[in-house]
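Exercise 7b. Backbone tokens:
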């Protein structure tokens, strides 16, 4: 009798396992590989990053974004086009900051050793939930195509767009219906141990997020309330160095001029509330519990930012790029980008 009951129990458990196995497989297939970045890169404004970095480097103790950016900028620690308080810290911005930090220590402007400055910088990066690392030029990647077809878990990515909303910055190819909203920035980098040939960023974005009980604006639109003009930082042109300058930029004549005296401060680094256009707007969308505001409206004129008239696509096969350490060959992983072996 006991054997009969035991046998029925085993059969029931086996049947239940077979019934659940397809859904278990789907669940596993719909997840990002452990250690891979989320569909949307954590949104961090340059202003927030400057405040934390200034404190970590013992440059300033202020909570004022403009003051922190100015103190860092005087030491030569700034993105290539200067600090723009409400612009997001993207992979290229972060690595430009790291490079400028190395130069500041080498020149003696910053009274810290290179290793100590790098450690403090890494601590700030980790504080904001980023795992970005630069690539170096001492080895060569395996010539494997890096196109949208190579990015894994398309169903998971599309589900995120549907349930969470459209991400501002993502390392995964957007679903086809969203692709035209994005610019592709061909800037290779590491996220932890995964290599990505570049990232996608919305051509136009203006998001309001709540962090530590305060409002933070993440935008590439900036309103000059005096001239009623809205300037847009083009993500691809920012990467190329052909865009508006912010605080601490070197040789500002190489950048697009706003025509507004001290525009890098009065436009791009004034309090965020002054840059939100007046007038009625539709209810904001939501992504991950964050409030998202639409692109500025109200008839403001957007100042032109040159785009070069070309369409930039993800790189195809045969691209030769370098990982951060010697003798490493990589191949496409199951969770995004490319993985070290």
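Sequence design result:
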């Amino acid at each position: 009798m006991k054997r009969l009951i035991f046998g029925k129990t085993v059969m029931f458990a086996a049947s239940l396992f077979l019934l659940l196995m397809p859904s278990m497989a789907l669940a596993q297939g719909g997840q990002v590989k452990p250690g891979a970045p989320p569909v949307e890169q954590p949104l961090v404004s340059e202003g927030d990053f400057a405040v934390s970095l200034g404190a970590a480097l013992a440059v300033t103790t202020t909570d004022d974004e403009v003051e922190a950016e100015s103190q860092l900028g005087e030491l030569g620690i700034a993105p290539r086009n200067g600090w723009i308080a409400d612009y997001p810290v993207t992979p290229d911005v972060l690595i430009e900051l790291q490079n400028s930090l190395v130069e500041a220590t080498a020149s003696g402007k910053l009274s810290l050793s290179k290793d100590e400055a790098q450690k403090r910088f890494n601590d700030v990066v980790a504080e904001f939930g980023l795992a970005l690392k630069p690539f170096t030029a001492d080895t060569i990647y395996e010539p494997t195509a890096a196109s949208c077809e190579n990015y894994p878990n398309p169903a998971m990515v599309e589900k995120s767009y549907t349930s969470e909303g459209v991400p501002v910055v993502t390392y995964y190819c957007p679903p086809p219906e969203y692709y035209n909203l994005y610019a592709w920035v061909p800037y290779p980098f590491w996220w932890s141990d995964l290599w990505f040939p570049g990232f996608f960023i919305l051509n136009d974005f203006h998001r309001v997020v709540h962090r530590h009980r305060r409002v933070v604006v993440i935008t590439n639109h900036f309103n000059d309330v005096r001239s009623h003009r809205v300037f847009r930082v083009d993500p691809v042109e920012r990467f190329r160095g052909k865009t508006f300058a912010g605080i601490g930029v070197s040789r500002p004549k190489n950048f697009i001029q706003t025509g507004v005296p001290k525009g890098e401060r009065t436009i791009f680094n004034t309090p965020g509330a002054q840059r939100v256009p007046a007038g009625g707007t539709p209810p904001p969308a939501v992504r991950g519990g964050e409030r998202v505001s639409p692109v500025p409206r109200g008839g403001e004129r957007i100042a032109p930012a040159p785009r070069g008239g070309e369409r930039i696509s993800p790189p195809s096969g045969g691209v030769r790029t370098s990982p951060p350490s010697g003798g490493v060959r990589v191949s496409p992983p199951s969770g995004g980008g490319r993985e070290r072996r």
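Instructor comment: The chain is about 30% helix and 15% strand. The longest strand covers residues 206-211.
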